[in-house]
Amino acid sequence: MSAPPAHRLLARLRHFTVFSPEERNAINTACGGSALVARQRRDLIREGDRPRGVPLILEGWAFRYKTLEDGRRQIIALHLPGDLCDIHGSILRKMDHSIGALTQVRYVELTRDQIDDLAALGPRVHQALWWDSLTTAAIQREWTVNLGQRDALERLSHLFCELIFRLRAVGMIDGLRCEIPLTQTDLAEATGMTPVHVNRMVQELRSRQLIRWKGREFEALDLDGLCDVAMFNPAYLHLDHEGRHLDALG
Fold first, then answer.
1. Count of domains forming the chain
2. Which of 38, 48, 143, 159 would be a feasible disulfide site paired with 105, CB 3.0-4.6 Å?
3. What is the span of the domain harbouring residue 37?
């Protein structure tokens, strides 16, 4: 039996509050439209396009990016299964950045009306959607600190730690093993380094026996040690059930 369309989204939102069966059904219904597919390294939407809706990633990894006139690119966010790509973006007249597919991506687009209807279900869903938006902003702030204050080794370690915690939140990690489909060029564009420098930092983490990484298969051999190198504090991910006072009973 296939999983419901919003199961990763629901897995993510449960870190804020617990929904009633009716609310879970409504979320699944809203997310149950025809899935779209973006091939690897193709765009879901481009800078300058008119937003069509809110992409919800069902499968695969996506990323936000900005490109300068000379072709240099900065990855400004990573989107994992269960992520809503900017819940308020659909109110804009046109996109100020692009969203691309790191891997092949299956996604659905939620309309503004669907988002409004979900929020109208009651305070649990309404505040959970706000929590999702605020957490996305918190991650963006942490990326700014990463680029501005952490050195290269800390910067890369921090990104790995964040991905581990985010993948764990949606049930996509086995112990401390997971799939990270990022190339060294992707990591360079996300961390403000060159691919050569990224390679050196990866080798340094390997030599300290903090990580194992081959192809897409990644394992944190010493997560506490990796967090220490990164000065990583997961509080900005807000995964500690902050909306427990809203939990549905039964």
1. 2
2. 38
3. 7-133
